[in-house]
Amino acid sequence: MFERFRCTQLLEFDACTRCNECIEWCPVYQEIKEEKFVPWDTMCEEDKLGFSPKYRVLKMREMLNKKYGLRALIFGPREITKEELERYRDQTYMCTTCGTCRTVCESRLDTVSLWETTREMLVGEGIGPYGKQSRFLEILKSGNMYEAKQEERLCWLPSDIEFKKEAEVAYFVGCTAAFRAQKVAVASVRVLDELGVPFTLLGEEELCCGSVLMRSGQPSPLVENYIMKNIENLKKRGVKKVVFSCAGCMKTATLDWPKYWGKELPFETLTFPQYILQLVDEGYELDIKPVRKKVTYHDPCHTGRHLGIYEPPRRLIQMIPGLEFVEMERTRELQRCCGAGGAVKAGIPQLALAMSKRRVEDAIEVDAEMLISTCPFCRRNLRDGIKEMGIDMEMEDLMVILAEAMGLNTEVPENPYLYKS
Ligand code: SF4
Ligand code: SF4
């Protein structure tokens, strides 16, 4: 049962000094503590604490001791009950794997990897995943996480945009921008086209990056197959740089794909702000008109805390004249998660919604008229929060803001997914 953990991970469970720092910062525990989201019918304060990172570490330590501790060696292992494991499953799957606990942990525990391996263990025991996440494997057989038709992967592409069969630059659109946040995809290709960058798209050969299965503890031969095909197809097209509009795809490609590929990827991975700034540094000129708005920026966990990309989106925002840019209190390393990650949006949507409302409140506090991010998944979740709150605030992806400030048409052509959210 515990074989999935590496020796270093087992040591990490022992290394927690109970400093409580992670409890202070965990965005999920905050929602549960304040009862904005109530996972179980009856909950005492101790039950609530069970959802915090520290107590999940300590509970795993307790379970390991039951099986392998000194007492277990002398008197024999004690039973870990199904009920115990099911409660631990709930606690583990409520986590958005945002990584804040890893950032603040004084003992340097790599908690995100602990949570993901724990999920794999629970799936192995037939106790995980959670809710709708158990359909992921079936859904992903379609090639994407929305069970859409693969041959419609480019249904959002405006007819006047041309892409190359082979090019040094590829735009990896990702399932969400292709089928749910198509304006982001349109804006991204419009900017590339306007700058005259020859680029390629994988079209129906683009397969899900594998993020949702990995984050929910369900790595499988299907994930491996998709990753290898994506890499082979990009390689076949002579690609040297892959640009992502989804933070989840970017993190998965940058950190997880090389493990499956077995060596360094044959191309560089970049977010759109990073790539656009590279072009600017090479001498490309952006013809940007002023946009009069007070805006703030939400760092996606996957490109922020997980990859350390904080400055490029801010630099790009500040290149748009007229924008008044204000920072929220929690930004960069200590940014507050929007609530969508770690497969929580699919598995526990009410928790994702409570967390997104909290992040929107952060933006209200600084009087922002618009929240900007660089991930279609954050965009969807934060928009859901804004809608639920019934407030007058905009939420948009930075590429859409940039494209429109450049006078480009971001209208999405009519297609079967246009009105799906
Ligand atoms: S990764 Fe984020 S949500 Fe999960 S336990 Fe750590 S701080 Fe909480
Ligand atoms: S921050 Fe690290 S050491 Fe401190 S309680 Fe949390 S897991 Fe333990």
Helices and strands in order, then pairings?
Elements: H1 7-15, H2 21-25, H3 27-33, H4 45-49, H5 53-68, H6 70-75, H7 82-93, H8 100-104, H9 111-124, H10 136-140, E1 169-172, H11 175-179, H12 182-195, E2 199-200, H13 211-215, H14 221-236, E3 241-244, H15 247-261, E4 268-271, H16 272-281, E5 293-297, H17 311-318, E6 323-326, H18 344-347, H19 349-365, E7 370-373, H20 376-389, E8 394-397, H21 398-405
Parallel strand pairs: 1-2, 1-3, 3-4, 5-6, 5-7, 7-8
Helix pairs in contact: 7-9, 12-21, 14-15, 16-17, 19-20
The structure holds iron/sulfur cluster (SF4) (2 copies).
Short structural summary:
By secondary structure, the protein is of the alpha/beta class. 48% of the residues lie in helices and 7% in strands. It has helices spanning 7-15, 21-25, 27-33, 45-49, 53-68, 70-75, 82-93, 100-104, 111-124, 136-140, 175-179, 182-195, 211-215, 221-236, 247-261, 272-281, 311-318, 344-347, 349-365, 376-389, 398-405, and strands at residues 169-172, 199-200, 241-244, 268-271, 293-297, 323-326, 370-373, 394-397.
What structural class do you assign from the helix and strand content? alpha/beta
The global form is globular
Number of domains: 3
Number of strands: 8
Please tell me about this protein's structure.
With 421 residues, the protein is of the alpha/beta class. The chain is 48% helix and 7% strand. The chain has helices at residues 7-15, 21-25, 27-33, 45-49, 53-68, 70-75, 82-93, 100-104, 111-124, 136-140, 175-179, 182-195, 211-215, 221-236, 247-261, 272-281, 311-318, 344-347, 349-365, 376-389, 398-405, and strands spanning 169-172, 199-200, 241-244, 268-271, 293-297, 323-326, 370-373, 394-397. The chain has 3 domains: 7-128, Fumarate Reductase Iron-sulfur Protein, Chain B, domain 2, CATH 1.10.1060; 138-281, 3-Layer(aba) Sandwich (Rossmann fold), CATH 3.40.50; 293-405, Rossmann fold, CATH 3.40.50. The strands form 2 sheets. It has a 4-stranded parallel β-sheet, sandwiched between helices. Strands 6-5-7-8 form a 4-stranded parallel β-sheet, sandwiched between helices. Helix 16 crosses helix 17 (311-318). The two termini are 39 Å apart. Strand 7 (370-373), helix 20 and strand 8 form a beta-alpha-beta unit. The longest helix is centred in the C-terminal third of the chain and has 17 residues, at 349-365. The chain is built from 21 helices and 8 strands. Bound molecules: iron/sulfur cluster (2 copies). The site of one iron/sulfur cluster has 13 residues, from helix 3, helix 8 and helix 9. One iron/sulfur cluster binds at residues 16-22, 53-54, 57, 104-107, 109.
